[in-house]
Write a structure and sequence with these properties.
Elements: E1 7-13, E2 17-24, E3 29-32, E4 42-43, H1 51-56, H2 60-81, E5 86-93, H3 98-110, E6 118-122, H4 123-131, E7 143-149, E8 152-163, E9 166-176, H5 179-185, H6 195-208, E10 213-217, H7 228-234, E11 239-242, H8 246-260, E12 268-270, E13 274-275, E14 277-285, E15 288-295, E16 299-300, E17 306-312, E18 317-324, E19 331-336, E20 348-358, E21 361-368, E22 381-387
Parallel strand pairs: 1-5, 5-6, 7-10, 9-12, 10-11
Antiparallel strand pairs: 1-2, 2-3, 2-4, 7-8, 8-9, 13-16, 14-15, 14-18, 17-20, 18-19, 20-21, 21-22
Helix pairs in contact: 4-8, 6-7
């Protein structure tokens, strides 16, 4: 495989601030990007929760501020790394929602970055990329992320397994959320005052799955000292790491993997926000029947959009072969296109668009495209919702 030489950038955008890092190809590790006064964080000009409304309402001044903000993050990574050529940018957000991602896509288009130059990733994905890019003894039994946010302490547990001949990384999750946990997050009480609750909750989780390493992040865990009891419990036969830059470093590893395919070349990432059912279709090319893969399992749902053109024979239904990665067996989804007029002599041309709105929901739209200057399109289209 040809080795890339351009810059790989990871960006994590939280509600009030953003972080950036770049991939050091020599040491094969992400390097933090520092801003004014040696800070790791750059304050957002507009809170992230407002970005969707800003772009949907077309508030020009704020869209320009947001675009300049992203440009500054990327520009600082270029300056610190000494590299002016971008290979890939991975942007991570906590709430992986379509409208927000569309707003980010608008920013990248405004900054003239082609779709091939950037990808989006959720925090769960970035965590997986970070954890499984470490030494094997740190993830061989599985890993756990404890993310202490305003709604509680999220536990994301991942482990790799082989199913139906495929190496998978699976995710389980749990949430510890109540008034006391919220009060500790807000600083109304100390972390030591809810220590017993956290340990009791974690004992149940560790009884279900052993882990090699535990990672702590989130504002609630951004403290100078952890309670002794919690520290002792977590460190029993496990490695424990704490920090506030895990997601941005994971985004950087994600950018690296998307160009080099090093860690995940033989492993399918089946965590939240990853499509776990592939989509294929049988086609004929030069009179030879072939299987065309439209969506690969393990693909991020927002980045899984596809649009293809086909010339049809006398076909009234299109058969999609659905391939779950959990070993439950392939199945068929039929798309009835009888509304689209058939034209003999291979003069029926269609487009098929696959657009995901979540990792388990896909809309397939088939449109009549006519046939160039010879036959105008009928304007007919067929839309089908798939639950994966």
């Amino acid at each position: 495989m040809e080795t890339k030489s351009g810059l790989l950038v990871g960006i994590d955008i939280q509600e009030q601030y953003a972080q950036a890092c770049y991939f050091d190809r020599t040491n094969r590790m992400p390097q933090n990007v520092l801003f004014g006064d040696g800070r790791h964080e750059l304050e957002n000009p507009v809170p992230l929760s407002e970005w969707t409304d800003v772009f949907s309402q077309g508030i020009f001044s704020k869209t320009e501020e947001i675009a300049a903000h992203i440009a500054h993050l990327i520009g600082q990574a270029m300056q610190v790394s000494g590299c002016a050529q971008i290979d890939k940018i991975c942007i991570s957000v906590q709430y992986f929602q379509e409208n927000l991602l569309d707003a980010i896509a608008s920013v990248m288009e405004k900054l003239s970055y082609e779709k091939s130059k950037w990808i989006a990733a959720s925090h769960e994905e970035c965590y997986a990329y970070y954890a499984y890019s470490q030494k094997r003894d740190l993830y061989q039994l599985g890993v756990m992320l404890l993310d202490y946010e305003a709604d509680g302490i999220h536990a994301y547990m991942m482990r790799d397994s082989k199913q139906n001949g495929t190496n998978l990384i699976r995710e389980g999750s749990s949430l510890l959320g109540n008034e006391r946990v919220a009060d500790a997050y807000a600083g109304k009480m100390g972390l030591d005052e809810i220590e017993a609750e956290i340990v009791s909750w974690l004992k149940g989780l560790f009884a279900e799955q052993a882990v090699s390493s535990v990672y702590l992040t989130g504002k609630g865990f951004n403290v100078e000292n952890y309670p002794d009891g919690l520290t002792k419990f977590l460190c029993a036969h496990r490695k424990v790491f704490a920090g506030q830059n895990l997601f941005v470093k994971g985004a950087c590893f994600c950018a690296y993997e998307s160009t080099e395919s090093s860690v995940f070349d033989s492993v399918l990432l089946a965590c939240h926000n990853r499509v776990t059912t592939g989509i294929e279709v049988n086609i004929q090319e030069r009179a030879v029947t072939k299987r065309l893969r439209i969506v690969k399992p393990g693909t991020n749902w927002y980045m899984a959009q596809r649009k293809l053109d086909f010339i049809l024979e006398d076909v009234r239904k299109i058969s999609l072969i659905m391939k779950p990665c959990d070993g439950s067996g392939d199945y068929e989804e039929l798309i009835d296109i009888s509304e689209i007029p058939y034209r003999p002599g291979k003069m029926t041309r269609i487009s098929m668009e696959f657009k995901f709105s979540a990792d388990d929901r896909c809309t397939v739209t088939v449109r009549d495209k006519g046939f160039g200057e010879f036959i105008k399109s009928s304007g007919k289209s067929v839309c089908r919702e798939l639950s994966l």
